[in-house]
Amino acid sequence: TYLEGGGNLIVTLDPYASTLPVLEEFLGEWGISLKCSDSGERIIVKDRQNAITADGFTLVTDIAKGAVADRISEKVTAYSNGNVMMKLASVIEASGSAQPVLVSSPSSVGEAGGVTVLSDGSFCVGAASEQTFGEKTGRMFVLSSVYGATSDNLVTRGYSNRDFFYALFDTFFGAGNMPYGSKVILYDTETLQNLKLGTARVYTSLIMLVPAALFVVGTVTVIRRKNR
After folding, report:
1. Which of 169, 186, 189, 197 has the most crowded Cβ, counting Cβ within 10 A?
2. Which among 51, 13, 72, 11 has a CA at the least distance from the CA of 159?
3. Rounded to 10 degrees, what is the CA torsion of 158, 54, 146, 73?
4. Is there a contact between 10 and 167 (Cβ–Cβ < 8 Å)?
5. What tens digit of pLDDT does each residue of 37-87 get?
6. pTM higher than 0.90, yes or no?
7. Are the C-beta atoms of residues 97 and 130 closer than 8 Å to each other?
8. Can you tell me whether residue 68 is helix, strand or coil?
């Protein structure tokens, strides 16, 4: 109902989590599914040539070509190289209204249970889907790894995870209409200076103490002068 009303949904999946048939059936209705081996195991992408770890499972992905991917790529590559680091990503099959957004390199393979089951490379690990319901358009983005948006990946030097997610949110929600009232900010430092809501409330309370104290002091002074 939310998506049919023009909502936007972003899903990140743990490749080693138990099968979630209801969720996966729902994603399938949007043309997005996780590819599994004949034994039912999810296929994990391995790329020894384009990885930052010796095992090949923390790989560097590229932004694909396509309507949604091009809009994201235009925003990302204006500020960084566009390469997104992914760890333990499974293979996504995009069909129908869905299209790849993040893809592995041609040298990558797909493994299940420690055995190579796919060798053709260029696997989709992030896909977007748009569907129109009357005058409303719902959008969904699925990332086949829960690690793409972890804090370590968002602030890693040389990779575009931070810029990619800003561009993704901007494409989905539009500049000035970001979730929870946030907006796109380009940081000059390597640290993501993100203020949590709880911390922000503390700072707001402290800041408000100053004018409140001045108000109390001013009120007391006025009352004393009137009573002289």
Report:
1. 169
2. 51
3. 40
4. no
5. 888 888 999 999 999 889 999 999 999 999 889 989 998 887 888 899 999
6. no
7. yes
8. helix
